[in-house]
Amino acid sequence: MQNHGCRGRGSAWQCPSHEDRSPSLSISARRDGNGVVLNCHAGCDNRQIVADLGLTMPDLYDEPLERRERPKVVAEYPYTDEQGEVLYVVRRLEPGYDGQRKTFRQFRPDGSPGVKGIRRVLYHLPEVLAEAQAGGTIFIVEGEKDADNLAKTGAVATCNVTGAGKWSDNYVQHLRGAGEVVVISDRDDPGRKHAAQVVASVQQAGIPVRALEPAKGKDISDHLAAGLGYDELVPMDPRPANPRNEDNAQSSGPQRDSGISGTQNQGSGWDDPVPLDTRTLPPFPIDSLGPLAQFVRTTAEALQVPNDMVAFACLATISTTTGGRRKVKVKHNWTESTALYLTCLADSSEKKTPALNAAADALRAIETELIEQARPAVEETAQEIRITTAAMDKAEKAAGGSSDIGARDEAKADAEKARDKLLELGDAPSLPVILVRDITLEALALRMAEQKGRLGSLASEGGLFKIAAGLYGNNGKANTDLLLEGYTGGPYSIERVGRQDRRMPSTFLALGMIVQPGMVAGLEKKNPEFRQSGFLGRFLYAKPAPTDYDTFDTPEVPDKVVEGYEQRIRDLVEKVWNTSDVVVMNLSNEARTEFGAFYDRFGQRRKPGGDLHDIADWAGKLRGQLIRIAACITLYENPQATEVGLDRIRAAIAMCPYFIAHARAVFDLMGKNREGALKPLRDVIDWLRSRREPGVDFSAREAWQALKGREWAEDMEAMNDVLAELEKTGWIALLPPPDTQGRRGRKPSPRFEVHPWVATPPTPGTATGGSHPANPGNLNVSHLPDGGDSYGISGMSRAS
Fold it and tell me: Residue 415: left (phi > 0), alpha (psi -120 to 50), or beta?
């Protein structure tokens, strides 16, 4: 301090960071004895003080702060089916997250996190089944490591996924026939409770069972490591464990926490951060659209939007024009409508409305023509209804108020005549409407009733999801009945108190939405009935990446292409929408054979253990949706077609991988699972990079002020959760908090250091840990710490 011209004595010194006539800087020893604490009573920032003294923050400590290692995969445990095919893999990470010694995560065979929908089986299942059939002895332990170590001795050992407390009675089916089951518990309370649960389950199945525990150490691995064997195992002690009497081998816990993130390494600085990018999704298979492909491709190029956006808008438009006047007979007891429900996700300012308009403008122009053509007749009929209604009211009034029998009979006859005429005129006609935008469900039902139960809706705001969730009307309760019926073509009734009921013998609704991802983020989690009712399963989804270019000069869509599209839409309206009969289309013999083979292959993928079992509700409708697409493209090519041919079926089947991949991504987002959990992290990284100095540290409060208002940034607690995840993935590191002893006022906001890659991303292939891309993009999300309940059991840490 004296070398820098500061005066003072003891713990009070002049501050070097402001003009300080009387000593205002306190310098005191840290309570832990490791260095000193600075406190300028004038409010100078400690970092500035340290810099003005020519020092760094670590210079305030006598000993370097300990830094935790980032969790790394130390073992993988495959769970297989009866034939040895891998169903899922459990990864063991050490050190664990949040100061734990270890953490377990579950992954699919392809490395993606989460195993929701995949059936749970016992570890080492083929060996367990073989031993049971031979009437042998099967050992059940608490974790995979114990099972592997016991197996090395020649025993058949198994466990259940996620460890203590997660045993299911369903596992017992694999143990039937065993001569004896030996349950070996861990020597702690959770372990003994788990063992007791397993014993009770096995006993109930009538299988001989007993419970033992290690004679030394915490688990069977410690027991074996001590040179002990099967004969040294002891009966399970039912008494609670006393941690003070545990062996030293059990006392290893997390090291003293310095507060620094587990992303830094004292020897080499920062480790490579965990990737944050979403999986790469396949592009839209535009060639499968047949005669529609050219319009979609050229329009997308002109608008500089993904092909997916235009394709979805066009398919929704074509579906609308069929208006419930076509059905497809797939086989003797299976008929599909031509209604399509389509949702494409695109960020703000990604030209959602222009893409919709490019597809729908032709239909809207035709709708305007139909309205003007129908207006005179509609108004004339409406007027006739009003006049007749007034005449009937007058006659009824005269009949009721006259004492003259002859006059009353004459008035009654006039009233009956007017009533007969009203019955002949029918309901007041409405002007023809084919398309609507965002609309409440009540208004949608009324408008559909006016249009004989059929309508199309193309929108770019996503209000339908809010409306269906009960945001408007229905007392805040979700109501998807009309949307469910409109997809299948079922009847629907509008029952209104004090007003005439409206009944639709059949319904038809086509939906096309291009909305921001935030409109569907968490949708399933907030409205589980959407998934349970099959509402979300009725949609085809697209989540395309935005185009890499955005220029002023763009190619125009050739007039011939636009005119061809408009003419085909006009033909569909004239020859399909405007007709009154419902025509049933059939599959050609070749198409039926092709689709039947696909149907059988696809069905196995939905079964337990199949790759689509976790989205079986959606996948179950995909085959019918492919039929609908094939029919719509067939009618676009020839509105009078009565048969769906082989080429159209093959083209629709070829779209199947695209729809599956995009549906997975969107369901992740709607459930706030893998994809939904990544977006907040990317938002923070994007904000850090947008700052004038991306690499400087920041506070949690600064991040909140910059990002509040985002769909996920509901409050400061949510922000803290996101920052904690970013710290786990290695993109930021928590700085030691300043010593606030003796200082009044608000507690300082936590501050974080920023990984160098935020400011200066490495070129591909130069990262020390492998080839990572420049930004949190194209990164393997299978390494991302799971947010909790993304796939049912994914992300659950085990106490064992």
Answer: alpha
Q: For 385-411, what is each residue's pLDDT tens digit?
A: 888 889 888 888 888 877 788 888 888
Q: How confident is the model at residue 381 (pLDDT cuts 50, 70, 90)?
A: confident
Q: Report CA torsion sign: 489, 495, 499, 501.
A: positive
Task: List pLDDT tens digits, range 337-348.
Answer: 999 999 999 988
Q: Is 65 helix (H, G, I), strand (E, B) or coil?
A: coil
The pLDDT value given to residue 432: 92
Global pTM? 0.56
Q: How far apart are CA 282 and CA 292, in angstroms?
A: 20
Q: Distances from the Cα of 545 to the Cαs of 85, 155, 342, 346, 598, in angstroms?
A: 34, 52, 17, 8, 29
For residue 266, what pLDDT is reported? 37
pLDDT in tens, 71-99: 788 888 999 988 888 899 998 888 766 65
Instruction: Give burial (CB, 10 Å; 0-12/13-18/19+) of 280.
Output: exposed
If you search the block for the tokens 């797939």, which residue do you land on? 330
Secondary structure letter of residue 208 according to DSSP: -
244 vs 25 pLDDT, higher one: 25
Which comes out higher in pLDDT, residue 638 or 716?
638
Residues 270 and 754 sit within 8 Å (Cβ to Cβ):
no
Calculate the dihedral angle through the C-alpha atoms of 136, 137, 138, 141, rounding to the nearest 10 degrees. Answer: -170
Our measurement of the distance from residue 275's CA atom to the centroid of its chain's CA atoms, rounded to an integer in Å, reads 18
Q: Taking 90 as the threshold, does the pLDDT of residue 781 lie above it?
A: no
24-32 contacts at long range (C-beta below 8 A, 24 or more positions apart): 25/49, 26/742, 27/1, 28/739, 28/741, 30/61, 30/739
**Mean pLDDT estimate for the chain:** 82
Joined together, the tokens standing for residue 415 give 């009233």
**CATH fold label, 72-265:** Dna Topoisomerase Vi A Subunit; Chain: A, domain 2 (3.40.1360)
β-partners of residue 457 are 436, 511
List the CATH code of the domain at 286-374+431-654. Answer: 3.40.50
pLDDT of residue 232: 87
Fold of 275-279+672-783: Arc Repressor Mutant, subunit A (1.10.10)
Name the nearest CA neighbour of 506 among 526, 486, 481, 524: 486
Give how far Cα 447 sits from Cα of 163, 436, 464, 480, 736, Å.
Answer: 56, 9, 15, 16, 63
Q: How many CB atoms lie within 10 A of CB 498?
A: 4
Using alpha carbons only, what angle is made at residue 440 by residues 437 and 443, rounded to the nearest 5 degrees? 90
- CA gap 726, 537 in Å, rounded: 33
Structure tokens at 314: 């066009």
